[in-house]
Amino acid sequence: MHAFKLEIxxxxxxxxxFALVIILGAVLLRLxxxxxxxVTLSFIDSLYTATSAVCVTGLxxxxxxSIFSPMGEALIALxxxxxxxxxxxxxxxxxxxxxxxxxxxxxxxxxDSFNLNTMGGIIRFLKSLLMATLVIELxxxxxxxxxxxxxxxxxxxxxVSCFHSIAxxxxxxxxxxxxxxxxxxxxxNVWLTLxxxxxxxLGGIGFVTINEIYRExxxxxxxxxxxxxxxxxxxxxxxxxxxxxxxxxxxxxGGAIFYSMSARTAGFSTIPLNSFTVPGLMxxxxxxxxxxxxxxxxxxxxTTTFFTLVIRLRHAVTNKPEEMFHYSIPEGAFxxxxxxxxxxxxxxxISTFLLMYTNPSLHFLDALVEMISAYATVGLSTGITSSLxxxxxxxxxxxxxxxxxxxxxxxxxxxxxxxxxxxxxADYISIx
Length: 432
Known about the structure:
This protein is mainly α and 432 residues long. 61% of the residues lie in helices and 2% in strands. It has a two-stranded antiparallel ribbon with strand order 1-4. The two termini are 33 Å apart.
């Protein structure tokens, strides 16, 4: 017999927290003070926007800068911030700010939210996380302000700078330029491109990595395996992706590096994706699916998952030990990585099938890019997002939600206790 467990678990608490923030955000975004004069917004579009913001995706069915008022844009920025940090981190951070003691359940939520391997130092980690976020986003806003002040009045430039910094660091490809073409108008601005890349990179390597590098400095031999893998894989994918884009698209090195970074869950674009070659889109999809580091503001299957699979493949082919950076890969890591990879691929496959079924006029490649982008919380699209019907939008909302929670978290929402005492005997099965 298998009994369904109804108790509150960390996975269910996190899932419920994200859902509650999304629904609340969807309701607030429809209020008149969040919209520009004369603009109306359907609930499905409001729900889509709130989900995209909280799940730090950046897919939009309406142009954010043209539809929402400054108050609405501020609310979207807040939703992005909550989504990037995580509901558990924001909630416990508020409690800590008011000198409220965190109980065991709150500490457990933080540990699960950021994939920490210990319960020790949770408060210290939380404080450093919030401080690092504030400092990085503030510096990013100041750097971006030097560009935006040339196009806007002072206070508008302040607002646009803060929004862009928050969206970039949290790997959410939202913009409020009002052009509906992301960063196209700034494609030749080297400074803003560089600032955006740095913010995306810092948000994508993970809070644990940032905290450890700050604590240990550049003494890489003191870094944990997780930090070594997160940082090295981010750099390899950044330049490896840029090289592939140089080979498949007519990019200069700046554009290639920008798209290689943005593809790994940020979602900003400087040229329409429908102008990409098929090999270029395949490169884009691979980078989107891999995503960023665990415990970061980005999505995807995560760089550590991809690394673990590659190391196991190397072991299978060469029989070399599963070691790297003076560490051995822990037992059970491959099993978990394989499950994440399989569930991610399965989610993309099923969602692409359903999107094509509910929107039969779509081209397969466009639908596949859309669903990988939604699952990996990227925000890049070939331009089909606004043309989706209600069923397509609802499907995308669900996929973004699954992608933000992570497939393993979603899987553990339904927890069964195995009461069986006896087991069938094991037998040989031929693999491959």
